[in-house]
Amino acid sequence: MKRAVPVHILSGFLGSGKTTLLSQAIDYYKLSGRKPAVLMNELGDVNLDGMLVEDGVPMTEMLSGCICCTIRGDLGLELRDLIRDNDPDVIFVECTGAANPIEILEGVTDASLLTELELKSVITVIDAAHLLAQKNGKGKTFRLMQDQVRCATQLILNKIDLIEPGRLAELESEIRELNPAAPMTATVRCQVDMAMFDAIERSAGTAEVPSRAGGAERHDCGHEHGEACSHPSHEHDHENGHEVHSHHSHDHVMVYTHYFSGPIDSEAFEELVGRLPEEVYRAKGILRFSDTASLFLFQYAYREMDFVKIAPKEAVPNVAVFIGEHFSKDRLAAELKALEQKD
Ligand SMILES: Nc1nc2c(ncn2[C@@H]2O[C@H](COP(=O)(O)OP(=O)(O)OP(=O)(O)O)[C@@H](O)[C@H]2O)c(=O)[nH]1
């Protein structure tokens, strides 16, 4: 009889490196002749990270909401269908960076009632530079990052190329205070020994999430849930991008999705991104520029911009998604619209 399908949850704040880790994990499983599948959750209504996942990897997308609240109820069904239709050897669940992993963890556990799967790990990727910048903060972002660290069974302290080497030990000891048990690796571009997954899967039983993250003290790991998840404050305004309203710990996160009517000037776009307010901490997009024939996947995380040439096999929209807190969507929309008119 086939064993229960192992599931790994990839958690971590927006832009920390979850997709970077996922791509390497997929390559690792494929190289050893195993079949990985992916369930991806994005706040925006287009799956841009999915563009980075190789063709031929079964993938289910849960868009336009945070997996841990608005669409958690569907998670079990999606996992069941993914297994039934594709018979994978492993499943990676990549959450939105605004998600609280304890909720997803419970969703995956619920799903094991519908199909044979076993949660094997909650891997939290931490953006070292962002965590340092947030240090001693009292904001919701910092609290959510702490929750994500607490809930992890594996920790990857990523982007250490962006911090001074002397600060690494300080960060590590702070993380250790939140989560003393999970093995931690400091990385650049999430380069960890992928054999880690085999070791995790060989170990018997389901992932043991640190006790502080569960049970009676669940609020330590975010928020209470249950009936509150159908709270009427989960409203979306799809016409003007949407704001993720909720009572949850990530209720401050806003999303604006902009569909461009045509190609735009690359320099004007870079200039706009260069002066985005601090409150916009993450952006992604697929962009057609008027001054080059190539199509680009655009990434922006905490003031770092990246453009990667892509050649998708199917038609893709011309779109940019902006994620942050309390920024003016109207102003941003007007500025993006102005780029369309320049051309
Ligand atoms: N300098 C630096 N950049 C990195 C590192 N790891 C990832 N990046 C870049 O950071 C950006 C975000 O990485 P992703 O892997 O997409 O992050 P994510 O956690 O999946 O992002 P969300 O899906 O928005 O939550 C990309 O432009 C990556 O190339 C790193 O160690 N150092």
From TrEMBL:
Gene name for this UniProt entry? yciC_2
**Which residues does the annotated region (Disordered) include?**
206-248
Entry-linked SUPFAM superfamilies: Hypothetical protein YjiA, C-terminal domain (SSF90002), P-loop containing nucleoside triphosphate hydrolases (SSF52540)
PANTHER family attached to this UniProt entry: COBW DOMAIN-CONTAINING PROTEIN, COBW-RELATED
Determine the domain of life of the protein's source.
Bacteria
Annotated SMART domains: CobW_C
Protein name in UniProt: Metal chaperone YciC
Query: What does it catalyze?
Result: GTP + H2O = GDP + phosphate + H(+)
Originating species: Paenibacillus konkukensis
Q: Which family does it belong to?
A: Belongs to the SIMIBI class G3E GTPase family. ZNG1 subfamily.
UniProt-listed Pfam families: cobW (PF02492), CobW_C (PF07683)
Q: Which residues form the CobW C-terminal domain?
A: 253-340
- Print the keywords alphabetically: Chaperone, Hydrolase, Nucleotide-binding
Ranges annotated as spanning the membrane:
none
